[in-house]
Amino acid sequence: MSNIALEVRDLVKTFQLDGSTINAVDQVSFQVNSGEFVALVGPSGSGKTTLLSILAALLTPTSGQVLIDGQDLAKMNEKQRVKLRREKIGFTFQSNNLIPFLTAKENVEFMLRLNGDLNHAGRIRSGELLARLGLGDRLNNLPAQMSGGQQQRVAIARALIHQPAVVLADEPTASLDTERAFQVVETFAHLIHENNRAGVIVTHDLRMCQYVDRVLQMQDGKLVREYTSQKEIMELAQAIH
How many domains does the chain have? Predict the structure, then answer.
């Protein structure tokens, strides 16, 4: 049985701008296996965030296919896509989008509540996951009572709690200082590997690539290079950005 959790085939996304066609994503193909953590890197405007939005079933491609856990997004209606997004995809945004009037634990449990899976075992798992992320003493804190790094770790717990096939992160360290950023990505990588999820992170900070298994470099909507060896990835992580 294949362990491919995410498959992208000949993906294209075009936009019309001032009478011209912009290829934001241009014939992109790749796969991510369960238990694999992949970084998408590239300059601003290279198509990284557009690609991630398509993978999250938030944006419809112009052509091509995205398969999540073997299910083709193109063959689904909107109701089916919403269900798949809720059950099979975990997503962390650049801004963590926590619900301000819910505690850390309630924010994590909210994903289980959406899926109708909030039971005693789920509540215990939420607390354990937050503790695993170093937030065992923050379970009952509201977002405003936590630092940026703590809030981002709550967002990671929320993205993982419902045991999705694919976990996507869009610049999750953009608003963090360097030390907190390293902690967040390192913890994220550990959880991806431990829980056998497929993880994709968009990052502008090449130093974060030291925690991933593979790096895909984008430019002008295309995948232009793939870094697969740890030596290549470490050299990239140490490059002046």
Answer: 1
61 in helix, strand or coil? coil
What the block records as the tokens of 131 is 């503790």
Task: Please provide residue 69's backbone torsions phi and psi, each rounded to the nearest 5 degrees.
Answer: 55, 35
Cα 232–169–95 angle (5° rounding)? 130
Q: Are strands 166-170 and 4-17 parallel, antiparallel or unpaired?
A: unpaired
The confidence score (pLDDT) of residue 187 equals: 87
Residue partners of 69: CB distance under 8 A and separation at least 6: 5, 88, 165, 166
Residue 21, domain member (yes or no): no
Q: Is residue 177 part of a domain?
A: yes
Domain of 222, in residue numbers: 35-55+87-237
Model pLDDT for residues 141-170, shown as the tens digit of each residue: 999 999 988 998 899 899 999 989 999 999
Q: At residue 77, does pLDDT exceed 50?
A: yes
220: CATH? 3.40.50.300
Could you tell me if 196 and 167 are in contact, meaning their C-beta atoms sit under 8 angstroms apart?
Answer: no
148-160 vs 120-132: helix axis angle to the nearest 10? 140
Closest CA to 139 of 93, 150, 148: 150
Q: What are residue 39's phi and psi, to 5 degrees?
A: -105, 140
